[in-house]
Each structure stands twice: as C-alpha cells, then as structure tokens.
Design a protein that fits this description.
With about 220 residues, the chain is an alpha/beta fold. It contains ten helices and six strands; from the N terminus they run βαααααβαβαβαβαβα. The model has no long low-confidence stretch (mean pLDDT about 95).
Length: about 220
C-alpha cells in the first residue's frame, strides 16, 4: 500500500450530490429573477470556491443581502434534496479496499461537522473513517486550515492521498504538502462539482503527484 492515509472530500466525491446542489441553486436564482444554470455541464464549468464568489458570479448581490442568510437558504433547499442522494459509484468498494490494505481514512469537508457525520452514517459508511472533520457552520468556508492542523499531528513518514472533486481539494493538498512534514498526492475526481478541463489545469505546486480520475476505482488503483 503506497499511502498511510487517505483523506476524502465528501460532497461530490463520496456522494453524488452535484445535481441536488444545482437544483437548489436554480431555485434561489429564480427567486431573485436571475439567470438559471442551463444544466450540469454549465454548473460544473462555473462552480468554484470560495462559494461567496461563485454566488457573486451568478448575480447574487451581497451589498443587498447577507451571505450567511444566502448560505442558510441554500442549506434548507439542499437538505430537502439530499435525502435521496446516493453514494458515488464505487465509493464503498474503494473505502473497503483501503481499509483492507491498512490505510487510515479521514473525511475532510467544507460541510458542517454534525451534518457530515449524519450523512456518512445514514449511508452506512461512517465506520470506515478514523476521523470525520468538518466546519462549525453551513457557510462552506475553506478547509485548508483544518487539513493543515490535522496533518501537523502526523509522522514525517506519512504519505497522504487527498481525494476530491474541486480545485479547492487540490489547494488543500498543496497547503498540507507545503506546511506539514508529510508527502502529499492528490486525486481529482471528474464525477463531482467541477469540470474535467478545470481539474486538468491544476499543477503540482508542493504536491508530489496530481492525477485526474473518472471513477473511484481509478483512485484505488493509484494507491496500490
């Protein structure tokens, strides 16, 4: 086993929730008489962190309304959709393989920590993880500081694979590789919230290796 630790993103990686997020966002855009997203391809092409800037790109006016209220509105709409969101294809098989091979598994997410734990256990995969790390609220802020704090507790012999579906997941891997005494690689999954073109544009600043993968089975293959 190449890696001592596998750090999983949640939304768009372990669960296939991009369509649910897009539907919630389009409801919010219609409420404000803003142009809606035309479909999954446009959503994935335009999605980015920070989410506040993504919303601003779509026409939200944060001089006129509070970002926290917008985040809470999205959360309520998403929760109505989220109950029917499945695990991503191949997710449980990959989790099982990594456990069999002895790697520690961590979820590191921009989701609120309580919701994150609830969602994992509701889908029957919570027990695969040694740690579940989320944010204290629903504003979907950066998880870079959380990742760095976690990695600084590891041995300098640790070799970590970050698995995610956004450019921000690559940024977190780079933060950890630059700020902690561990080796870090990154696998970027095209089945989530970000288009392949944008994921392929990520470099390798601080990260030993960046791979763009189309299935979670491909992630498992990287680690063996």
């Amino acid at each position: 086993m190449k890696y001592t630790h596998i750090v999983w993103d949640f939304n768009g990686t372990l669960i296939d929730d991009a369509a649910a997020s897009e539907r919630a966002l389009n409801i919010m855009l219609r409420r404000r008489s803003l142009a809606t997203l035309s479909g999954r391809d446009e959503y994935k092409r335009r999605f980015r962190f920070p989410l506040r800037e993504f919303y601003a790109d779509l026409g939200f006016d944060f001089a006129a309304e509070d970002y926290g209220a917008v985040a809470a509105e999205w959360y309520a709409l998403y929760r109505a959709e989220e109950k029917n969101v499945p695990l991503s294809s191949g997710a449980e098989e990959a989790l099982s393989l990594f456990r069999e091979r002895g790697a520690a598994q961590i979820v590191l997410s921009s989701s609120e920590a309580g919701l994150l734990r609830e969602q994992l256990y509701a889908r029957g995969v919570g027990e695969y993880f040694d740690e579940i790390i989320g944010l204290p609220d629903h504003t979907a802020g950066s998880k870079g500081a959380l990742g760095l704090r976690w990695a600084r507790g590891l041995s300098d012999k640790a070799h970590v694979l970050f698995v995610g579906d956004t450019i921000h997941d690559y940024e977190v891997a780079s933060i950890v590789a630059s700020g902690a005494s561990v080796r870090a690689d990154c696998a970027l999954y095209t089945g989530g919230h970000t288009c392949r073109e944008h994921l392929c544009a990520c470099g390798s600043c601080g990260v030993s290796r960046v791979a763009v993968v189309d299935t979670l089975s491909d992630v498992a293959a990287l680690a063996i």
